[in-house]
Amino acid sequence: MRIALMQHTARPLETERNLGLIDDAAAQAREQGAQLLVTPELFAFGYVPAQIRAQVGAEEVDAARARLRGIARDRGIAMVWSLPGGEAPDQRGITADLADEHGEVLTSYQKVQLYGPEEKAAFAPGEQPPPVISWRGLRLGLLVCYDVEFPEMVRAAAVRGAQLLLVPTALAGDEASVPGILLPARALENGLALAYANHCGPEGGLVFDGRSVVVGPAGQRLGELGAEPGLLVVDLPEITEESAPGSADYLQDRRADLHRHWL
Fold it and tell me: Active-site residue among 119, 145, 189, 224?
């Protein structure tokens, strides 16, 4: 499977402009033969939790979702996007949707691990485990940003059979340890591939460092971007239980019942 990751700078609450960038990325990804495009966390509205809470209503979220479904359908490419939930501002979380190339939403997820005081004040945390579905011969799972930094979150997807984990993110600052250390570790210890799509540049008072990356099930980098806007297109290797020959089988060897008592 060939997948693409969009990395760009959103402008806070300039929804039409931001959706236009997603449309451009979808067109370019499809031209390069990608079957699936992953976009960054909350990109349609920009990563501005307090402003979204105060100024974005359910109708605007519904309109953005409809436009994103239309982009997937018109460009003929499956997509992962992240939006505020459709509930009232004091009840909604940060969500991710996976839609197929016809614009039909296949599965959705609400971010469980909210990051920092501003995000926690603006959104409600999810309670459900990451969804895992079959699509084009692969088992795909969804997480959002900070979720993937927790071993328990990735393990929850892995034990449900995920082979490729799709992660819209908004990682600000010079946090090289996340794409450089944590993501390869999460992939290796669970025997799955991981696609991580970030913002880049100044946005809403933060500076996003980019570093979007696709990591293989042996922890190897299959492709990565720097700090500038770009489109990363990667051909995934065949992902099977034998994708990392010679490595420890952490899923098989774990003693989950014992660990559960410890935790």
Answer: 145
Percent of the chain with pLDDT over 70: 97
* 120 noted as active-site residue: no
Task: Mark out the alpha helices in the chain (DSSP H runs).
Answer: 15-31, 49-55, 58-75, 116-122, 151-158, 177, 183-190, 250-253, 256-262
Residue 208, both tokens: 């996003």
pLDDT score for 69? 98
Work out the number of other CB atoms within 10 angstroms of the CB of residue 139: 18
Q: Assign 242 a pLDDT band (cuts: 50, 70, 90).
A: low
145 is a catalytic site residue: yes
Overall average pLDDT of the 151-176 stretch: 96
41 catalytic per annotation = yes
How many angstroms from the chain centroid is the CA of residue 236?
16
Residue 107, classified by CB atoms within 10 Å of its CB into exposed (0-12), middle (13-18) or buried (19+), is: middle
Is residue 145 within 8 A of residue 164, CB to CB? The reply is no
76: left (phi over 0), alpha (psi -120 to 50) or beta: left
Question: How many other CB atoms are found less than 10 A from the CB of residue 205?
Answer: 10
pLDDT score of 246: 54
Closest C-alpha to 194, from 241, 140, 242: 140
Give the least confident one: 25-29, 87-91, 169-173. 87-91
For the cut 80, the answer to whether the pLDDT of residue 6 exceeds it is yes
Task: Single out the catalytic residue among 14, 16, 31, 41.
Answer: 41
In whole angstroms, what is the distance from residue 153 CA to residue 140 CA? Answer: 14
